[in-house]
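Here's what a typical entry looks like (Trigger factor):
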Amino acid sequence: MAVKKLDETTYEVSAVREGEEFKHLKEHVLVHFKDAKVDGFRPGHVPANVIEKKFKKEIDGEILNHIISDEYQKAVAENELKPIADIKLEKYEIQADKAEVVFTIPVLPAFELGQYKGLEVEKENFEVTDEKVNEEIEGMRKNASKLKEVPENEEAKNDDVVNINFEGFVDGVAFDGGKAEGYDLTLGSHSFIDTFEDQIVGHKKNDEFDVNVKFPEAYHAENLKGKPALFKVKVNSIKRKEEAELNDDLAKELGFDSVDDMRAKTRENITKREEARVENEFKNKIIEKVVDGTNVEAPRALVDREIEFQINRFAQQLQMQGINLSQYFQMTGQTIDKMREDSREMAEKSVKTELVLSEISKVENITVTDEEVDNEFEVMATMYGMDKESMLNEVKKSGNYQRFADEAKYRLVNKKTIDLLVKETKVR
């Protein structure tokens, strides 16, 4: 076995089995196939050469697994590696009397922490002015506006919400992802390609018409790039915002006693929100300074995992709006590869931050008690609208309790680590 360090996050393992060693390994594997069923032979009486020919792929796979398992364990133990993901098979060759394997192991990088105590970081001072309060109240007034369906003889205009059915055609043929019914579209939002929304402006309820657009040259679907398309569109309804008036009735509708009460409580809410924002930004500045001061490489395996996590989270958010990723790509011209590329920088930063905070928690011996974890469970149960026992029972039923508990411990240790950094930082 030969182990080579390729970089701070990757080790390469090369192994060869040949001669008698290979022969014994192969015989060991063949034992598991001795009772294999082969037409024309009784179980247990199939000649070895017949088994080797019929089950060559499976036998080679078993030999590979044995070699990798042995060499992986040795490499990890002898080099004190900390693997973070599955190995990557780089080479596998098997001959009559020899097998050669090369694989890489992604590992946690070794690194030295930069300065994380005695830093000086600027903290924002803020003031809640009457202007900010009035701006917030104006926002609530506008948000209280209700969408009201306009009369059938009125035409759609920008900012209206039109409910439409549509189906797209290229060269007279309908294409995948180009059809929907009962879709709410805000005109002027530029959610759809080209001048799609502009061509709906001026139409009325129950109008059926054609919309002609052109797909972008950089569109992700090869069969649609730069192609002109025709959409058959029907307007089911047109809704327009009806602005609310600021008075005691509106204040009560929004949960206040009066407009004066609305102003007082809005000031309180802004103050709490701004205090939380300033504190959060202060913490982020500290963390960023600590991470920037530490020379650590983000393992590609962890970065790729973080990218997929971010994309899955975005997909879930879209799903809550009734849109899937495929539809999103059709509407925006985005691609999954471009999305991954755009997410990489943020993912690398996130991974580096996680590595640095984890190392600080180890150096500072930061731990959590069972009582603290139990309290965290109480908080999570409240967040889910459940009692703690019911929540934990559901988690145990799904077989995810250990991971659930580990994640809770990780969050608490992370919070304590950040609190330590804040305590050790001088406010500038």
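Residues 88 and 104 are 5 Å apart (CA to CA).

More examples are in the samples folder.
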